Amino acid sequence: MQHSVLITGAASGIGLGIAKHLGASHKLILTDMNEDALQQAQQTLAELNIHCQTHVLNVTSQTDIDNLVASLEQPVDTLINNAGIQHVSPLEDFPMDRWQLIVDILLTGPARLTRALLPGMRNLAFGRIINIGSIHGLIASPYKSAYVAAKHGLAGFSKVLALETADTDITINTICPAYVKTPLVEKQITDQAKAHGISEEEVINNIMLEPMPKKAFINVSEIAHTVQFLMAKEACNMTGQSLVLDGGWTVR
Fold this sequence. Notes:
The protein has 252 residues and is an alpha/beta fold. It has two domains: 4-177 and 219-244, NAD(P)-binding Rossmann-like Domain (Rossmann fold); 182-217, no CATH class. 46% of the residues lie in helices and 15% in strands. Strands 3-2-1-4-5-6-7 form a seven-stranded parallel β-sheet, sandwiched between helices. Helix 3 (62-71) packs parallel to helix 4 (96-124) and helix 6 packs across helix 7 (200-208). The longest helix has 29 residues, at 96-124. The protein is globular. The N and C termini lie far apart (39 Å).
């Protein structure tokens, strides 16, 4: 079955990796705030013979979301909430406008998009809402108060929506990977090194990978394959769940 898949934050990193994985079999709608990066992503996919629509989208803007929904050629049956940012700082030094922006993008944005696309999924009697969460939706790390709070909230939001959509074949789940080597994490390595006063290598070995028995970054392909499973009709009874890809981190 070919799905109509909308991915946020799709111009790079996890979002683009998912698009590459799904593009041969499904209709893709890529969204991102960065228009230039979005065009580059579209070109990258075209070189792989993957065609997609693109829309510049700020997930914190209801106007942007309304305009996007109005422009759709067909209902979206699969929403992948992936857009995200990060800021690393002790709470005392955390700019509150940045704190609010992180929550708006990571938590309120998925709620806005889900709310906008849910009626179309109900009309189709099928839908898959897949949130790209984080290990930090389950545990905490210092200096990431906004991110951790938002990711914990996303897991709770998914549980509520699972109950609200239980009357039809719509599911909502959250994928929770440990650290994935993306541009966002590369920046975190630098920020963490400054915050802790240590080298970037020490951040990788002593902070990021230290709690993981497998001692390895999560590969984007692992997340993409998990997305593919959640999209399947055979995943119809998996809903409201957090799927953890953490190399054994949380089993200790």
